[in-house]
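Figure 2 data, in text form.
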Amino acid sequence: VKDVDFGYRQILVRNTKGKKDRVVPIPDVSREGLQQQIDKVRVLHSSDLERGNGRVFLPEALSRKYPAAEAELGWQYVFPAARLSKDPRSGVRRRHHLHENGLQKHIRQAAMKAKILKKVNCHALRHSFATHLL
C-alpha cells in the first residue's frame, strides 16, 4: 500500500525483473478505483489485526530492523488473497497477495465480454500501456 502515491500519481514497483525498482504512472481513470481498493484493504487489515493476524512476510533484514512493520497497513498488499495461509518459512498464518493466475483469468473473461478476439493477458496489457505512453 505504501508504494501507491496518489500525490505524485505513481506506483513504485519494487524488485522487478533485473532487480530494479520501477515507477509506473497512475492513469486518472484508475485513481478512484485504486483508492477504493486501498480502502477495502484498510478495512480487511483492521479486521485481520483484531483476529490476531494482519501480518505480511518481510525480507529478514527488514523484519529485524523494523519488527512491527509486518503488521502496518503500508506493508499490506493492494490486492490481498481472500484467505489467510500458513507461511511455510515460519508457520505463521498470513495474508499473501492474489495469485497471478486469478488476475489472468479475470482479464481473459473481460476480453471475452468485450468481444476482443486477440489474445489478451497481463503481458499484452503492459506492452500496450507502454506503447500508449510513447
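Caption note: The first helix runs from residue 28 to 50.
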